[in-house]
């Protein structure tokens, strides 16, 4: 049984809450859940595994819940074996789920306060849920790093998660869903308790998490694996969000909103576009000489919808993160107002789609921004929108752009040639009549 707390925490004092007084783990805004097609409405729900209290006990996730215990058991067995060999710890000092639940007892009020709802869950059960879910995440990250490092296991250790190719990508998506989160400080505490004293292990929990996510998301900056500050991070979704930051267009925000129109409208204003080579969010407009809009490549696959939806839901739910993805999705949704716009960007290698036809891509981007609020002064692309809007308002650039598009079209070239010949013919006739007028006697 639970009660809604209007996104404000319950269960701890101000001192317990740390630097943030507003609950950091909450449900997706109802309007966003209702927007879009039926398939999109379920992009916020875990498909394989429940993490935390929001979806705990969901019968649809029963299979992985049972397997979760197996993963944790194998993980603790491996951890204790390493501690026994390297840290000279006797069998009596072995780590168990009970000992870990006792170790995080003092963090329970702070952990409960991280959620936007008060859950009627007994203290001991709540702490064991934190431990089991946290250990599961840590073990998956640990095993994934080892498997990519060329560590071989015997057949008994290759379990359900690592045996099937489709499970890990789906698990990755479950672990970044807004309603499927654990407090980050709980994950770090459990990691420290289980890895302290392991001389053969030098990585941090943040590194393991980013290593896992980067393997499934080519757009993630690889620099985050060597230099990323996770201080102040509240959960895994926010950690994922924090690696994406625009390196350009960080000029002062503008209060006035400009409509940029679709990519076809932009071309009519004599603005060309090309694939950008920077980070995903680095959309650049260069108006020196030939106006060019640089857009980094966007890969549309099975993960794009859930990832963007949950990142935008996070930004809509808290002011503690900048609304970069809300700005990005709104910008892209304006560019692709129709399947024809998607085709233009796809031919320009700006969009790579693996999900179906161009209409599906246009619908996906359009639906993500439904029921989403963005103030122009918070939009990191406001200066780009402003410059494009100014150019599109110019009649001269509209005429110039339309003429160029006509000349680029094979049929348009033929029409332009006829117009040129006709104009030349009329010019010659006018010249002849002007010449003859000098010799014709005036009445």
UniProtKB/TrEMBL annotation:
Positions of transmembrane segments: 414-439
Species assigned in the record: Escallonia herrerae
Protein name: Uncharacterized protein
InterPro entries xref list: DUF247_pln (IPR004158)
Keyword terms: Membrane, Transmembrane, Transmembrane helix
Pfam entry (one): DUF247
